Amino acid sequence: MPTISVDKYDLFEALGRKYTTTEFEDLCFEFGIELDEDTENEERPVVDGVQEPPQLKIEIPANRYDMLCFEGIALMLNIFLGRRPTPNFRLVQPATGDLHTVTVLEDTLKVRPLVGGAILRNVKFTQKNYDSFIALQDKLHQNLARQRTLVAIGTHDLDTIKAPFTYEARPPQDISFVPLNQTKKMNGEELMAFYEKDKHLGRYLNIIRDKPVYPVIYDANRVVCSLPPIINSDHSKITLNSKNVFIECTATDRTKLDIVVNMMVTMFSVYAAEPFTVEPIKIISDHNGQTRISPNLSSRTETVEVDYLNGCLGLSESAESISKLLTKMAVAAKPSEKDPNAIIEVTIPPTRADILHRCDIMEDVGIAYGFNRLPRISVTKTVGAPLTLNKLADIVRLECGMAGWSEVMPLILCSHDENFAWLNRKDDGKTAVRLANPKTTEYQIVRTSLIPGLLKTIRENKGHSVPIRVFETSDVVFKDEAAERRARNERHFAAAWYGKASGFEEVHGLLDRVMAMLRQAFLTHDEGLQAGPGKDIDFAVTPTHQKRDGYWLEPVDEATFFPGRAAAIYVRLGGKTARIGEFGILHPSVLENFELKYPVSTLEVNLEVFL
Question: Does the pTM of the predicted model rise above 0.85?
């Protein structure tokens, strides 16, 4: 969870009283956050001859983006304590009546297609709230924005630039400006080289470095405002004297973009001349249907049943009482007009992006009521039990372990070659799920077989004494257009024997043991009995193995295995026949691909047919 450091006595002043460490720790617990550290009695750094004031380091839930700064923590705790109502965040039109615009060009689709923003008017900055303003950007970049890959925030002194603005994508050599806190003008290529070894900005360069074009925001005079997601221009940097702040955010994810813009403006609109007011801007992006007014500070309305809230928490509160509790959590609530005794209408402000479902509302009711006051509930209404598939897999794992085989757990991702070419198999394009943007060639697809993982495990343990006997019971994944997510998991069991002998009989024996444990008889072609003279046979005679349940083997000729040393495994269950796997001695070319010098015999079976 993110840890936010705030000035201890500034926060106590904002909350209207001083707390002891224990008292504040209890307050944090009641609200669902945690006091990690109070630095008052510890050595604190001295900067410019002044010792840092005592800090409270508070752990914030990862989804509470509205509490990633001093302003958010103070606001939410004051509402919780009943010292102030939930603010009414409003959009106000500019004095001229015309909104500032950001026109998005189509080339931005190649790199970062989305943009949003807002304007804060007549902001009064001090050194402390200025530092908090910058710190909130950093926290949002690290948390919700995923290291600026999803969203990047730029803030500018509006009085130093001129609207309207354009958001474009241009070749790096065509972009030239003075980066923030620098004095030399650079183009895009020079900027990349300059910041390559920078500890702070260097980690973001790879987001756009290999793109043919870089995103850039210009003002009406073609002055560069920012090169997202890397750095702003020094021309429009914010200082303590800045009054009007232009906030722009570029993104690849619309939902995250809206949340980030809302968090920035709602947290710091408190410092505007008219608190909690925001001036919107117009985004003109006709090519992708994203033309709109930004930000959207409208509230959402959800309905939740009183019985659900009371049932989950063990309470018997009325709709009116629950509505009052929810106001402590910065949401407005009232009994529904349709059924005031059974349903509550909850109005969710733009600050509470963490509320996604009625269970989130239930959690807020529990916090407002008090965790320590909730009645104890005896959990006897449900019975936990393993999934049937997991129970079956555990039985197989136990049998293999008792047979002297070692379990391994390789990663479910592998390279395309390991899954296909190295096993002498061909990819038809309809089997394996590919990663859209693999970071390395080692993790390109989701495996369709357990064999590559076993062979890689053996390869990395070649120094171990032979024979090596390993097995795995886990999932593989296949494309499936009929499934909701266009893919399905399938539970497989696989084993591999590595030694100076082929080990064919070892994996065959393991197969027989697993099948016997699964109550599957081994069938042969000559199975069946004939009644002799004077002999009465009181059981059914089955002349061919296909007519009774059980499993049998048939030779196969597959490139993965040594010719004449492989068999397919067939099973008949409830009158239905299916091929469930195969085993055999691997072909020498497969061994060469995986850098193995001794023979390997493998076995792989689909377990789901036994459910």
Answer: no
